[in-house]
Amino acid sequence: MPSLTIIDRDGTAHALEADAGLNLMEIIREHGFDELLALCGGCRSCATCHVHVAPEFVGKVPPMCDDEDDLLDSSSERNETSRLSCQIPFGDDLDGIRVTIARDE
Question: What's residue 80's pLDDT?
């Protein structure tokens, strides 16, 4: 089973194992991280599942679409590794990925 590390808003790293086939938002929510609101449930309409992907994994996640890019533009916490966790499918190719939940705005 592939693993990932979620860094919460307090800076605590949480090592997890998760099934391939879910997206990162689903995994984060299933593991009880309430600080990731994901209000739209993954419909790419709110940006409340904003995360920062570890730089070494940025090139391994799917490219960002225009809608995701537009939503992230509204965030003051956006940086070069920002992504919506609902847009990142998790699988063996991302084994070991580290993501940090973006600060609340």
Answer: 97
